[in-house]
Backbone:
């Protein structure tokens, strides 16, 4: 249990590690990797439900999609051009070494499925990762950060499922607080 508890503490680092790409866009206090992963999991469940996949599985895959960043941090896309990244499956294997076998096998299986895009749920989870970035970019843009368009464009280009594409179109068409206005206007 000592190593498993250590792993849980390690994953807690994701609450402190910031998404570094946003620093390039001028966002001084970007969301954490854990913040990103939480909304990504919700979005993955939504996309999977719309696509006829298993929402719980897609959400679960999303929860583990960036856990490797507790070891390698969040390297901005531009930095990846100059660094040789260790494959996420290898980082995960190192993270789970010495954990109880059922836990280690489960985590390695989930990460492998996500990385290989081996199922519709994995495709939905990957789309959720990109859609969450797009939504976050629109929120930062409304907060006055004008340099986020490259994140919107690259996220939009990476979407594969029809549902994620429709959600992205809607996110770009509406304001991030339109839902509040509807409630205040009595449209629940």
Residues:
């Amino acid at each position: 249990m000592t190593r498993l508890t250590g792993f849980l503490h390690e994953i807690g680092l994701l609450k402190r590690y910031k998404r570094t790409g946003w620093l390039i866009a001028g966002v001084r206090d970007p969301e954490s990797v854990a913040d990103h992963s939480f909304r990504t999991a919700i979005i993955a469940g939504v996309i999977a439900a719309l696509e006829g996949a298993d929402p719980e599985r897609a959400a679960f895959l999303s929860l583990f999609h960036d856990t490797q960043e507790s070891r390698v941090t969040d390297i901005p896309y531009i930095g990846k051009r100059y660094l040789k990244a260790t494959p996420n499956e290898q980082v995960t294997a190192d993270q789970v070494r010495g954990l109880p076998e059922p836990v280690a096998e489960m985590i390695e299986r989930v990460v492998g499925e996500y990385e290989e895009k081996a199922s519709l749920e994995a495709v939905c989870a990957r789309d959720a990762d990109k859609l969450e970035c797009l939504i976050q970019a629109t929120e930062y843009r409304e907060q006055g950060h004008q340099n986020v368009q490259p994140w919107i464009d690259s996220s939009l280009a990476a979407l594969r499922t029809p549902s994620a594409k429709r959600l992205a179109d809607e996110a770009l068409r509406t304001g991030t607080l339109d839902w509040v206005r509807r409630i205040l206007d009595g449209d629940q």
Observations:
- The first helix runs from residue 2 to 12.
